[in-house]
């Protein structure tokens, strides 16, 4: 009786040992690729690509689910065998030499590929169109259960530029783990190739220990369990340390930007990757939401300029907020804001330093902003005294037939004359440009139309002289604008200015065409007046020569303030006016011949 009991015990123990030593595990490993079905696209799998067995002997491998998606990883799955198909080839093992052509999902499922060397799946285009296809296949791998199960699920947390915490899940009940790591390059664990190694006990975590790492670097980590007499296979993991914040992460370290003269300066690449919160409160003029991630720049306004043009060429941000400050870091004064691709910051102080702050709305878009800064030289006709002279056209049937004269308000500043009320609107005139013309007829039309960039045009027309102007007409009703003037005195000089209605400092690219015309013809008297005398040169360096058909009774020269500075009564048909002592600029020369008076605008060099 005792012998039978002892024999039974031996048998049961043997069966138990045999079952434990041959225990099996099954895992699925997925392989995928994508590309053009016509290229073709090939998915190649080698037996060395199998890793789910944790280094344990493989007992069988079967093809599992094969899936193909049209155009995206989540695209339709119903187009195989209609638009495209796949060829399968196996080398080595149970299915050595097996080839399936123009197959789809179910044609591959369940094939025994145990012991394979390579598996190749190739796309086939079976229609007249080239399609993008995403396809993948599961390999069902059965292998001997390891005596020491590998840990898994490693995660990196609290990652900084120089440190990280690691945690993972135990494979079984082990309480000891080994860890090795290396920067930049993958390696074979256990061979002494690592940058660092350690032993962890009690809990599967490695906190406050991984220090002195390099920023913006891939770290390869291997870890394994110690089951007390046996160890698991090594498990691979990797993470990337954070980048260093940009050097211009706050006002005190603002990057200096070079200002271009009459052009946009060097293009600046502004990156908010890893940018932090500078601690400066959001500007009141900003329209975006500030959540940190601001970057800072500074510039000095070139001597003689008071407006700086900002141009954004590209941005990875959904909304790019720009804020401008004067003052000093810690005592900043808000000057302006914009989210536009171009903007003119005006009213700046020549030679002063300003700070430009850039950030993304919500700080949830990361990347680059490409921008530049420049100044435009003051326009020649930026004020009344330097008004550009236009010549009126006559016998023009309509505005479309008139000759356009190109103009711009880009770079224009405030001439100092407040806006006049027009059609019950006042507007602003902080970017006005000036023109002058001699009326040839009583009726004159001024037509202005913007070119590539829309802006709300205002026209205001004056008689008189600079410094003593009289408002005689305006246009502020639409775009294009047209001022239709009546009752003008032929031979008299009139002025008009053009500006944008709104109180905006943005003048970049705001060009226009101005036409000065009338459908009227010259009267005989007007023709005689035009032919009465000639004058030259204009511009003049010293002597202005005047020649008339009758005696010149009087010549008067006025400055732009209307002050008479020269008076001559020659009573001859020719006369020379000495302007050599006058300062450079524009002057009016009034000539009286008989009963006819004509006013000329002359430029003194």
Ranges where pLDDT stays below 50 over 5 or more residues in a row are 1-21
Q: Please identify the top-level CATH class of the largest domain.
A: Mainly Beta
Distance between the termini: 136 Å
Count of the domains = 5
Overall spatial form: elongated
CATH fold assignment of the largest domain: Jelly Rolls
Helix percentage: under 10%
Mean pLDDT: 90
* Topology, number of strands: 40
Counted by DSSP, the helix tally is 3
Q: Major sheet: size, sense and barrel closure?
A: 6 strands, mixed
Radius of gyration: 42 Å
Chain oligomer state: single chain
Give the secondary structure arrangement, pairings included.
Layout: H1 2-21, E1 24-36, E2 42-46, E3 58-70, E4 84-91, E5 99-103, H2 105-108, E6 118-125, E7 132-144, E8 152-157, E9 164-169, E10 176-183, E11 196-201, E12 205-210, E13 218-226, E14 235-240, E15 255-256, E16 260-261, E17 263-264, E18 268-271, E19 295-300, E20 308-315, E21 320-328, E22 331-338, E23 342-345, E24 353-360, E25 368-375, E26 388-390, E27 405-408, E28 433-438, E29 444-450, E30 457-465, E31 468-475, E32 481-485, E33 493-500, E34 511-517, H3 524-530, E35 533-536, E36 543-558, E37 564-568, E38 572-578, E39 585-593, E40 596-604
Parallel strand pairs: 15-19, 16-25, 26-28
Antiparallel strand pairs: 1-7, 2-6, 3-7, 4-5, 4-6, 8-9, 9-12, 10-11, 10-13, 13-14, 17-25, 18-25, 19-24, 20-23, 20-25, 21-22, 21-24, 27-34, 28-33, 29-32, 29-34, 30-31, 30-33, 35-36, 36-37, 36-38, 36-39, 39-40
Signal peptide: 1-23
Protein name: T9SS C-terminal target domain-containing protein
Domain Fibronectin type-III: 150-246
């Amino acid at each position: 009786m005792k012998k039978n009991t002892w024999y039974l015990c031996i048998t049961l123990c043997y069966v138990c040992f045999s079952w434990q030593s041959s225990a099996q595990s099954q895992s699925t490993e997925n392989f995928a690729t994508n590309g053009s079905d016509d290229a073709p696209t090939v998915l190649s799998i080698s037996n060395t690509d199998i890793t789910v067995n944790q280094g344990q002997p493989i007992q069988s491998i079967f093809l599992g689910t094969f899936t193909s998606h049209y155009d995206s990883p989540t695209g339709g799955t119903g187009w195989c065998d209609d638009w495209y198909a796949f060829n399968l080839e196996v080398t080595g093992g149970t299915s050595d030499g097996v080839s399936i052509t123009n197959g789809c999902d179910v044609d591959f499922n369940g094939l025994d590929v145990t012991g394979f060397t390579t598996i190749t799946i190739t796309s086939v285009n079976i229609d007249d169109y080239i399609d993008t296809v995403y396809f993948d296949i599961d390999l069902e791998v059965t292998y001997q259960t390891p005596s020491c199960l590998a840990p898994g699920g490693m995660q990196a947390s609290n990652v900084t530029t120089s440190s990280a915490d690691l945690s993972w899940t135990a494979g079984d009940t082990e309480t000891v783990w080994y860890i090795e790591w290396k920067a930049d390059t993958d390696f074979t664990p256990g061979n002494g190739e690592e940058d660092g190694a350690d032993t962890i006990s009690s809990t599967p975590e490695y906190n406050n220990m991984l220090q002195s790492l390099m920023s913006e670097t891939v770290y390869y980590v291997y870890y394994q369990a110690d089951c007390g007499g046996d160890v698991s296979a090594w498990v691979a993991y990797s993470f990337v340390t954070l980048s260093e914040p940009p050097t211009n992460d706050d006002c005190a370290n603002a990057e200096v930007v070079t200002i271009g003269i009459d052009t946009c300066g060097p293009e600046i690449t502004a990156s908010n990757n890893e940018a932090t919160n500078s601690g400066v409160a959001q500007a009141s003029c900003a329209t975006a939401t500030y959540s940190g991630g601001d970057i800072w720049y500074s510039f000095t306004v070139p001597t003689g300029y008071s407006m700086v043009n900002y141009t954004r060429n590209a941005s990875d941000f959904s909304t790019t907020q720009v804020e401008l400050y004067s003052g000093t870091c810690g005592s900043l004064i808000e000057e302006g804001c914009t989210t536009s691709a171009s903007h003119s910051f005006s009213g700046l102080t020549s030679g002063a330093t300003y700070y430009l702050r850039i950030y993304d709305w919500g700080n949830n878009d990361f990347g680059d902003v490409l921008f530049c800064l420049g100044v435009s030289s003051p326009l020649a006709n930026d004020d009344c005294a330097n008004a550009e002279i236009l010549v009126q056209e006559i016998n023009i049937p309509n505005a479309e037939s008139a000759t356009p004269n190109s103009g711009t308000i880009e770079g224009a500043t405030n001439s100092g004359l407040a806006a006049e009320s027009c059609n019950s609107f006042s507007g602003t005139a902080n970017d006005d440009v000036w023109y002058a013309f001699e009326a040839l007829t009583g009726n004159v039309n001024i037509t202005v139309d913007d070119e590539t960039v829309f802006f709300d045009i205002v026209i205001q027309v004056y008689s008189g002289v600079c410094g003593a102007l009289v408002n005689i007409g305006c246009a502020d009703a639409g775009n294009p604008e047209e001022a239709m003037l009546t009752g003008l005195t032929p031979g008299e000089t009139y002025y008009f200015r053009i500006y944008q209605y709104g109180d905006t400092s943005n003048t970049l690219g705001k060009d226009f065409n101005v036409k000065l015309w009338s459908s009227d013809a010259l009267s005989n008297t007007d023709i005689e007046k035009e032919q009465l005398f000639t004058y030259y040169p204009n511009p003049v360096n010293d002597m202005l020569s005047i020649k008339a058909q009758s005696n010149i009774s009087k010549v008067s020269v006025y400055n732009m303030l209307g002050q008479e500075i020269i008076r001559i009564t020659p009573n001859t048909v020719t006369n020379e006016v000495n302007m050599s002592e006058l300062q450079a600029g524009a002057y009016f020369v009034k000539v009286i011949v008989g009963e006819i008076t004509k006013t000329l605008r002359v430029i003194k060099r």
